[in-house]
Inverse folding.
């Protein structure tokens, strides 16, 4: 039941797709309880910001957004901080956002109704809702744990993380990994199918770890085998955030044998030199990584690979960086994300000396970017004259914009077609031109 004093909410989500799913679920809970979604923050009774706290730029953005809303608040409005930054550093919120009315643990976002009720009853001092919780709470009040964006949707299959990468604070923020029950995932997927969604994107901190806490072996592969049977009308199922060393032959076979599962895999490798990887507390057996990548390309010739790398990790030498450039040249990934190392408190690597100068980090980013641009252009040019399916996401000025199986939303490339096609349609296209990141084509 909604509170009499708070009728309308406005929710802004920052950061990754996993945060977007939590935000959509919070909004669904509020709507189910009788609250209304406001069109803008000015007309809302309560403003909720689902913050990101992963790295410093994301933390700074979250603080700036919160302060902007705090400065614009009118009498009777409330401002709530949820998400990773609230969990990671509530003291920073207290110190840097004086207009904050409440903060909510990311592990207990399901308690958003409780926080709103508390504010309506007593709002003289900021309310911090951080009950003890070792991991994410999964009593979701029967809301769907998805985020729909056009004809694509993210579906969260697990949350939290049991890895202990030296540069990452996610385990301390989110807690231990908690897999959702298969039947709950199938229910959400079937719901998305009824909406006419054409692409389901499976996400977690580590999708390849799915089911381990449930006692499942090869949990992700098993989940996929059942999922394609449950949602036969969804043409694309995409897998994100896999972990090197955890990609099994069975998973590769399931991807190969089921046309709905896109031949696309995101494997954040982070580096390619064994010594750097050991310092990162990441899998360092590069021979095994190369063998897995080779096996995947052999079994799935059309496979598109995405990865991310961190440059300037403490102690990274010129020789270690050269190993990374050599690796990128050898493997030829379709898409690469490149990030500088951020010296973050509450991570194991904070005890290391941040000894790679920022100028060197910037130079190494540019070196990798130029190298990858040449590779991306070459791989895109190889598509000229070939055909592919394109999911249309927008149109205007006589052209349409969409994505192919090679491109995940927001982070990869686009396909430009020379005619106006309705948004949400999936069409066959012939590629006629190639740019560094994008393709140009015509509808067949």
């Amino acid at each position: 039941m909604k509170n009499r004093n708070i009728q309308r909410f406005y929710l802004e989500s920052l950061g990754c797709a996993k945060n977007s799913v939590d935000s959509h679920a919070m909004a669904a809970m509020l709507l189910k309880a009788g609250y209304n979604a406001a069109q803008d923050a000015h007309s809302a009774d309560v403003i909720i910001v689902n913050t990101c706290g992963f790295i410093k730029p994301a933390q700074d953005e979250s603080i700036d957004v919160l302060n902007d809303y705090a400065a614009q608040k009118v009498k009777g409005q409330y401002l709530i901080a949820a998400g990773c930054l609230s969990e990671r550093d509530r003291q920073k919120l207290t110190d840097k956002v004086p207009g904050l009315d409440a903060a909510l643990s990311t592990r207990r976002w399901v308690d958003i109704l409780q926080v709103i009720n508390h504010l309506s009853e007593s709002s003289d001092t900021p309310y911090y809702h951080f009950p003890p919780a070792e991991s994410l709470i999964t009593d979701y009040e029967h809301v769907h744990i998805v985020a729909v964006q056009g004809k694509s949707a993210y579906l969260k299959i697990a949350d939290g993380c049991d890895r202990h990468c030296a540069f990452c604070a996610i385990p301390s923020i989110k807690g231990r990994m908690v897999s959702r029950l298969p039947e709950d995932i199938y229910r959400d997927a079937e719901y998305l199918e009824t909406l006419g969604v054409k692409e389901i994107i499976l996400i977690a901190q580590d999708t390849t770890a799915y089911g381990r806490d449930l006692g499942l072996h090869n949990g992700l592969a098993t989940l996929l085998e059942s999922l394609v049977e449950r949602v036969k009308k969804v043409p694309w199922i995409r897998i994100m955030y896999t972990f090197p060393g955890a990609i099994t032959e069975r998973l590769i076979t399931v991807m190969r044998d089921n046309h709905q599962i896109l031949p696309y895999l995101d494997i954040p490798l982070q580096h390619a030199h064994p010594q750097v990887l050991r310092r990162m507390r990441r899998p360092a057996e590069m021979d095994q990584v190369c063998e897995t990548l080779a096996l995947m390309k052999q079994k799935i010739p059309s496979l598109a690979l995405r990865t991310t790398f961190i440059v300037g990790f403490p102690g990274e030498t010129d020789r270690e960086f050269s190993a990374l450039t050599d690796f990128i040249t050898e493997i030829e990934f379709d898409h690469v994300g490149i990030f500088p190392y951020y010296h973050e408190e509450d991570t194991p690597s904070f005890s290391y000396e941040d000894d790679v100068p920022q100028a060197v980090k910037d130079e190494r980013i540019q070196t990798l970017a130029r190298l990858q641009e040449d590779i991306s252009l070459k791989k895109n040019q190889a598509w000229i004259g070939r055909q592919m399916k394109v999911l249309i996401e927008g149109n205007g000025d006589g052209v349409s914009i969409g994505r192919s199986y090679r491109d995940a939303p927001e982070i990869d490339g686009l396909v430009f077609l020379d005619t106006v096609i309705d948004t949400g349609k999936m069409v066959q296209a012939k590629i006629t031109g190639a740019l560094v990141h994008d393709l140009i084509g015509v509808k067949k």
